[in-house]
Amino acid sequence: MRRKIIAGAATLLAAVGTFTFVVTRAEAATQTLQSLAAAGGRYFGSATDNPELTDTAYTAILGGGEFGQTTPGNAMKWDTIEPTQGTFNYTKGDAVVTFAQAHNLKVRGHTLVWHNQLPGWVSALPAAQLQAALENHITQEATHYKGKVFAWDVVNEPFNDDGTFRTSPFYNAMGSDYIADAFRTARAADPDAKLYINDYNTDGQGAKADAMYNLVKSLKAAGVPIDGVGFQAHLAIQYGFPTNMQANLQRFADLGVDVAITELDVRMVLPRDSAKDATQATYYNNVVKACVAVTRCVGITIWDYTDKYSWVPSTFSGQGAALPWDENLVKKPTAYDAIVTGLGGTVQSPSASVTSAGPSPSKSASSSPPAAGACTATYKIVGSWPGGFQGEVSVTGKAGWTVRWTFANGQTISQLWGGTLSQSGSAVTVTPASWNNTPPATFGFLASWNGTNALPTVACS
Ligand code: 9MR
User: Fold this and answer.
1) Which of 342, 376, 393 is the last residue of a domain?
2) What is the CATH number of the domain that holds 453?
């Protein structure tokens, strides 16, 4: 008996030894903004735009694990999608979706109804034709992206800064009823998408936030299908931090809606200096902490991640440097680390960030090669830290796959993207998200582990 135990321990040690030595630095665990956000059940995302998708240094970061979500900055707006009445062009929006799906990024649809980037034909319509045009636009676009976006900014920026309704072709023709009509139309087209209203300068308490609060309250009371409120959070260090942001988010959540930070950036008057960077970092930290403190705050999106592609300099002359990566795609330790700590992470030194704290990730396990009409699944641990790890499973073979495995060491999945999870004890079953049905497909997950994190045997059927 004792000999068996000793022999068993020796085998285990040998296995552990081998396992450790095959790990390369590149394969070792990394903590990312997305892994930190996901540990709290949230996403961390970045907006993007079509011209940027040809910049390979840029896309390597966008799709490299820092982010779990993206929002097209322009590709799904009315002037892009329906430039002339009844003619729909989804090319640009589809390109963002394709990139997102290939890199495990969830997509927020932005935006169905907005006074800006609206083609001239909409403003030129007689008032009596506005409602039909609005409903048709929403129905067509939301139907096209059904199953591909998890949320829509249905109505964007309905208020003036003093809290009065903004005049727009929609408001002029239909009064504020256009808002309820837009939500009902979007729900009918895509019953599974979370439907948001989104605005800026509503991040802190004040007249505009009060107006939004009253609107959402009345929409809920009227049974209008609204699921969430987006807070753009386009901040500027020279204007101060929004008043009582956390309490503001919380009062909306208390109305029974989700809240999200949808377009975060923190600009400054140029040139950058260390004091401005430090102030900017406190803003990033405060926004992230405000979201993390509100259970129904589902995620944070920065309005692109690099100053190279920020909208700020072309809109606010002499201002910029608003994002956590500079124009050379180099992380600013100030802003980036402030987000990390806001998400509950620990700032890692450059060397620590490539050192695994737990059993090192590296190996993968595959199911048997597929016969015709069957599929193969390959399970990988892509990152690991004390108590947690990120896994990824890629599937090849047939559409409509189901992947199964049994954890041997009590691992428990807390979040999974790209598929639908059912975990019963140690048995895991994953079926595809609607957009992820056809291989090659990949899904990812975050899970807990303790002591041992053995690779399971995966089956695909
Ligand atoms: O980032 C977008 C920029 O490329 C466009 O030129 C601009 C035009 O209106 O829109 C920017 O995005 C806006 C978003 O759609 C709504 N909230 C404000 C954002 C910054 O202007």
Assistant:
1) 342
2) 2.60.40.290
Q: Looking at the DSSP assignment, which residues form a beta bridge with residue 43?
A: 299
CA distance 327 to 432: 37
Residue keyed to tokens 């909208």:
311
Name the residue with tokens 């989104």: 198
| Listed residues 311, 342, 373: the one ending a domain | 342
Q: What is the pLDDT of the chain when averaged over all its residues? A: 89
Of all atoms in ligand 1, which is nearest to the CA of residue 47? 1
Low-confidence ranges of the chain (pLDDT < 50): 1-28, 351-363
Q: Mind listing the pLDDT tens digit for each residue in 268-316?
A: 999 999 999 999 999 999 999 999 999 999 999 999 999 999 999 999 9
- pLDDT of 28 reads 39
pLDDT of residue 9: 39
Task: Report the distance separating Cα 357 and Cα 339, nearest Å.
Answer: 21
Tell me, yes or no, whether 318 and 395 share the same domain.
no
- Between strands 43-48 and 69-72, the pairing is parallel
- Taking the C-alpha atoms of residue 235 and residue 406, their distance in angstroms, rounded to an integer, is 47
Note the pLDDT tens digit of each residue in 203-254: 999 999 999 999 999 999 999 999 999 999 999 999 999 999 999 999 999 9
| pLDDT score of 323 | 98
- Tell me, in angstroms, the distance from the centre of ligand 1 to residue 384's CA: 37
Nearest CA to ligand 1 atom 2: 73
Enclosing domain of residue 452? 364-460
Contact partners, residue 382, CB within 8 Å, separation at least 6: 65, 361, 390, 391, 392, 444
Same domain, 369 and 318: no
Whether 235 and 190 share a structural domain: yes
Q: What is the CATH number of the domain that holds 101?
A: 3.20.20.80
Residue 32: name the closest of 22, 52, 21, 46 by CA.
Answer: 46
- 39 and 99 in one domain? yes
CA–CA distance, 305 with 44 (Å, rounded to integer): 11
Pocket of ligand 1 (CB under 6 A): 73-74, 116-117, 156, 200, 232, 263, 311
Pair 299, 431 in one domain:
no
- Position 365 scores a pLDDT of 67
CA of 92 to the centre of ligand 1 (A): 16
Let me know if residue 48 belongs to a domain. yes
Written as one string, the DSSP assignment of 81-135 is H-SBTTB---HHHHHHHHHHHHTT-EEEEEEEE-SSS--HHHHHS-HHHHHHHHH
